[in-house]
Amino acid sequence: MIFHTGSKIRAASFLPLLALCALALAPANARADLSAKQARKAITHMTGFELTNGAVRVKTISNTSATAAEVSAEIRTVFKFEQDKQGSWRVAEIRTGQDRWEDINLLATALKTQAAANECNAPDPPFRGAAALDPSVKRARCLLGSLLGVEVPSDAIRIQEVDPMPIPLASQASAVVVAWLRVDTRLLNGPKGWQVTELRTGNREWVIVDPLVAAVNEEKKKQARADLESIAKALEQFHRDRGSYVVSDRQAVVIDQLNPRYLPQVVRIDPWHQAYKYMGERDRFTLRSIGPDGKENTPDDIILSQSP
Questions:
Q1: What is the DSSP letter of 206?
Q2: Measured between alpha carbons, how far is 6 from 119 in angstroms, rounded to an integer?
Q3: pLDDT class for 12, splitting at 50, 70, 90?
Q4: Is the pTM of this model over 0.90?
Q5: Which pLDDT belongs to residue 10?
Q6: Residue 163's CB: how many other CB atoms inside 10 A?
Q7: What are the residue boundaries of the structural domains of the chain, listed by start?
Q8: Distance from C-alpha of 159 to C-alpha of 173, rounded to nearest angstrom
């Protein structure tokens, strides 16, 4: 009896150890749901954006598993608004990173949608119950709502700041608008960890991120080619007048030589926020954009050259 009882005691003492062994031997693909910290990191570094941690507030995580999840988050976003000669305002640019701005019309073209919002430029934007708000805030929220597919007023768009830019610093009436936007995202967990694969705002359809970025880059390539062609045209006129192309390996030098007589509009930076490259001799030149990968002498470089 004593031996039998002792066996029970010894067996019981091994139970915690057995439990630990079972955990250690559990399958490697056991469920590991997405955390708020992981979601925030994935959103701040989603393709095409570089945001700060403070710019992303994770609100909900749903439909989660070890490999997929949906996340709703508020993202602090900065826009540039511009007013045309007729007095109509539009959303012109969105800031995607430190000193990086993207043209809204270019994004709209890639998305095959329109960025216009004529109803927001009426004397009294069509809001319900927002009479106490400053008109500039009302108009900004209306324009963003139209762009993002959000019926305003709504907590999905909260204007934090509207800062008009002084005319001497801008070529036309403009303002910087800071807003918190509600964005729905879908994430997948792969070899590189959790990454945003789709996103949606308001009543818009889900957008797959990678094809969108590819479409945006195609539009940027068109813009880069147009820029290089305008510089090349100016160089040809310079050559006819001077008997030589600009001799230099610095893009800043060629632009200074061409502007304003041959090139009325200064063109220094490509659509990926990198300086255009120039190499010129008396009888030849090469113009280059290093393309979306940001690296020189790679297949995605955009090159325009002239030689005898």
A1: P
A2: 85
A3: very low
A4: no
A5: 44
A6: 11
A7: 36-205, 215-306
A8: 19
